[in-house]
Amino acid sequence: MRGTVLPGIDDVRRAAVCIAGFVRRTPVLRSASIDALVGRPVWFKCEHLQRGGAFKYRGATNAVQALDAATAARGVAAHSSGNHAAALALAAATRGIPCWVVMPADAPEVKRAATQAHGATVVLCEPTLAAREAILAEVLERTGAVEIHPYDHPAVIAGQGTATLELLEQVPSVRSVVAPVSGGGLLGGTAIAAHGVDPAIVVVGAEPVGVDDARRSLAAGRLVTEHNTTSIADGLLAVLSERTLAILADHDVEIVTVTEEEIIEAMAVVFEALKQVVEPSAAVAFAAVVRAGRRGTLPPGEVGVILSGGNVDLGALPFDRPTGVRGLTVDVEVRP
Amino acid sequence: MRGTVLPGIDDVRRAAVCIAGFVRRTPVLRSASIDALVGRPVWFKCEHLQRGGAFKYRGATNAVQALDAATAARGVAAHSSGNHAAALALAAATRGIPCWVVMPADAPEVKRAATQAHGATVVLCEPTLAAREAILAEVLERTGAVEIHPYDHPAVIAGQGTATLELLEQVPSVRSVVAPVSGGGLLGGTAIAAHGVDPAIVVVGAEPVGVDDARRSLAAGRLVTEHNTTSIADGLLAVLSERTLAILADHDVEIVTVTEEEIIEAMAVVFEALKQVVEPSAAVAFAAVVRAGRRGTLPPGEVGVILSGGNVDLGALPFDRPTGVRGLTVDVEVRP
Q1: Please, how many CA atoms are within 13 Å of residue B328, restricted to the half-sphere of its CB?
Q2: Which residues on A lie below 8 Å from B328 (Cβ)?
Q3: Which pLDDT tens digit goes with each residue over B146-204?
Q4: What are the extents of the domains in chain A?
């Protein structure tokens, strides 16, 4: 796509330096029980332990810290249904600048509370993209704030890539990296970082089969912006932008789709064997690994999975029935 | 108490060497959000990430590895409603010897499955102490196996103490250590280890108010073996032995009791702010810290909490209503 800025590995490496004083170097976990289930070593990059509970703080921090002082002073704004909201709020609070977030009224309570806890002003709107964009335009007009898009933003994409840069430092033996895909900021950053370290690393995106716009966009070679339905993975309902589609296409990223049942099962395995609280969107990448493992279609070698976030309403956990995976035991290795 | 073997700090240090090749050095987590809630640094020793999902593997391994070859070959046995069962099964499997575990028929399914996954023979019985002891006696008679008591056993107590030995290496600034108390193996080992490192460290035991036999035993100066009622903390229903009571009394261990509501709230905070899956029994120690923090009765300085286990049925999590603690955010430090 002509004229669009596509970040590269140098941008990811610069982002890692820029955000080092703000973000956590999250640990990597591995479970002997999960290795046995999948049939090979699986390493989980724990971005649910990142500040704010999601990888989003990496990209938000990189974008906010990159602003010149005069622009920053006017504040930042975004529309977001979830983790970008809290992340941007925290990144703005850390720089001491105001922040406005436009959220749909049906966003998870836990994500709204976290955004407000970081001092941002939450502006509620109807849960449609048109309403979000209209209200955000109004906020930008009224406040003079600069928009930090959740994913269609080079500094955000580069920031998200730093999770994979760290993962590959912590576990250099990883030969494939699997991340969930929504707007493509995390997956795009993942692909840039992984291929910047080693072009032979396989990069896989995972999405719910009901919201498979990334798969269809890559197959069609153009943006497909309609979903078929919805998903328990409420963080994965956005669609690619021209920019993120171009990155994923450039990097030959493969997309694996998973069912709602597979997402819940994968989430249960992460809870039971890793003892980690993750949100359904974070379980999607691991669900793709389990699916590929069962079908014998996993790429060769050790697998890295980005556990993207952990902000889930405890009152709405989907574990009201047996999950079908028995005999899992705890045996967790932690790599700092 | 005359004639009873009370382990000391040298036994804990020897246990640490003996089990080093088998147990995990579990990480220690700290949350800025929880520090703010309690009013000081709180460090969580992650024994829910220990092999088998609980600290119990430390004591079981120490006891099993201490057996001479001929005794070991006949196998080991115990009665246990939960984590000791799986831990002993795993310790026996690691040494390649048989294991029998007598469990009440109403033990949590997740703990029974874990025990069987490690290859132990599970013998179910009525959920009374008399039935457990009778069936165990039968198993010992029939098999020639040696009993490894869940807590009334010097090598088990010494093994449990290694968690605190590690914690104090990882975070030397800790001035008080809080552990849940059931039969007193963990709390006894904790007291021996903490005071072996520094006699000025305050050791606190936590138990549900409905099963406060440890508090009453220490107050009375003799074993009180009746509970008033029951608790969601199903791992804390055992009572002290003469041996563990003697250790707790020797070490001036203070007992804090907490309500069922406080246990569930503490469990929710661990899930929300630390993103860790722990069982209700593990939340009891943190509940005591929150309670003491609110009442201004916390001992001075940084606090260490033993997160004792994470084996909870996902279908039975007690989060069907709001927990009342809002505005928690994720900001986790990991100390390996």
Answers
A1: 27
A2: 117
A3: 999 999 999 999 999 999 999 999 999 999 999 999 999 999 999 999 999 999 999 99
A4: 9-55+153-335, 57-147
HEC string for A89-121: HHHHHHHCCCEEEEEECCCCHHHHHHHHHCCCE
Is pLDDT of B3 > 70? no
Which runs of consecutive H residues, i.e. helices, occur in chain A?
9-19, 32-38, 56-65, 69-73, 83-95, 109-117, 129-143, 154-170, 185-197, 213-220, 242-250, 260-269, 280-295
A324 interfaces chain B, CB cutoff of 8 Å: no
Task: Please identify every residue of A annotated as catalytic.
Answer: 56, 81
Chain B interface disruption, residue of A34, A47, A277, A317, most B CBs within 10 A: A277
CA torsion through residues B74, B80, B84, B85, sign: positive
- φ/ψ bin of B301: left (φ > 0), alpha (ψ from -120 to 50), beta (otherwise): left
- C-alpha count within 13 angstroms, C-beta hemisphere, residue B248: 36
* Residue owning tokens 């955010």: B329
pLDDT at B191: 98
Q: Which two tokens stand for residue A204?
A: 């896989």
Q: Which residues contact A216 (CB under 8 A, 6 or more apart)?
A: A224
Average pLDDT across chain B, whole number? 94
pLDDT bracket for residue A117 (50, 70, 90): confident
Structure token pair of residue A19: 């955000």
Q: Answer whether A319 touches B (CB < 8 Å).
A: yes
Mutate to test the interface with B, among A330, A333, A335 (most CBs of B within 10 A): A330
Task: Check if B9-54+153-335 and B57-147 are the same fold.
Answer: yes
CB A286 within 8 A of CB A266: yes
At residue B257, the pLDDT reads 97
Contacts of B113 in chain A (CB under 8 A): 326-327
Residue A324 pLDDT exceeds 60? no
Q: How much is the average pLDDT of A316-321?
A: 82
Task: State the DSSP string of B63-89.
Answer: HHHHS-HHHHHH-EEEE-SSHHHHHHH
In CATH, what number does B9-54+153-335 get? 3.40.50.1100
pTM across the whole model: 0.95
DSSP SS3 for A238: coil
Please check whether residue B253 is in contact with residue B218, taking contact to mean a CB–CB distance below 8 angstroms. Answer: yes
- Give the chain B residue nearest A276 (alpha carbons): B276
Residue numbers in B near A116 (CB within 8 A): 327
Q: Which has the higher per-residue pLDDT, A330 or B4?
A: A330
Mean pLDDT of A123-151: 95
Q: Is it the case that residue B324 has pLDDT exceeding 80?
A: no
Closest approach of chain A CAs to the CA of B124, in angstroms?
18
DSSP state of A54: B
CA B251 to chain centre: 18
Res. A53: pLDDT tops 60: yes
- Judge whether B81 counts as a catalytic residue: yes
What is the model's pLDDT at position B110? 75
- pLDDT tens digits along A274-283: 999 999 999 9
Q: How far is A114 from chain B (nearest CA, A)?
A: 6
Does the domain made of B57-147 have the CATH classification 3.40.50.1100?
A: yes
CATH 3.40.50.1100 fits A9-55+153-335, yes or no: yes
The angle at the Cα of B154, spanning B153 to B156, to the nearest 5 degrees, equals 65
- Cα separations (Å) of A298 from A38, A176, A301, B131? 9, 9, 9, 50
Q: Are A176 and A202 in contact (CB under 8 A)?
A: yes
